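Appendix B, Record 12. Input sequence as logged:
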Amino acid sequence: MPKPITLPTLFDNTLKLNISKLKEWGYLEPNQIINSNYKWTRNGSPSGSIAIFIDTCSTTPFIELDYKFNNEPRRYRVYLTAIPSNLNNGEVYYFICPHTNKRCRILYQVAGYFYHREAFKNAMYDSQTLSKKNRSLMRWIAPLLLKPEYAQQLNKKYFKKTYSGKPTKRYLKLLNELDKAHNLPPNAIEIALIS
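Logged structural output:
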């Protein structure tokens, strides 16, 4: 009898709740109650939806998640915590994972629940499934493949290039990656595939 296939769940392919998106949409303003729906799409087609109720008025702010997984209703709370920003301009919100009690910025849906990534033992990121050779290959040609994305990040509306008169680490990293992409030979992908 053959061994059963044990493919890992990939975080890259799961539904995610990102605190940065909630903040961007204005859902985490102090002293407000919001009832909203969120829909995920994959390649232009719907891949999931969830009703979220956010309460930042109470002493312990929370998000209540209401959705169906395999036609089974799920409803539970995920508490939030706020930490003062290191820039002294407000607070930074985090989820408190209902399973691990860890603070996190992204919750992944695996096995029907939105939890911190460490709650799932057999899940990993797509890059972790690559062989050692493929990982080194990707590191070598990634600047070329991601060149448009790096340029787009540099031109974002609120991207900070300097802080206190000095270039930010993120800005320097993006410049370094763009420089690597410019210095690769025109046939870099062919060379990488041959080696």
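Residues 9-124 form one domain.
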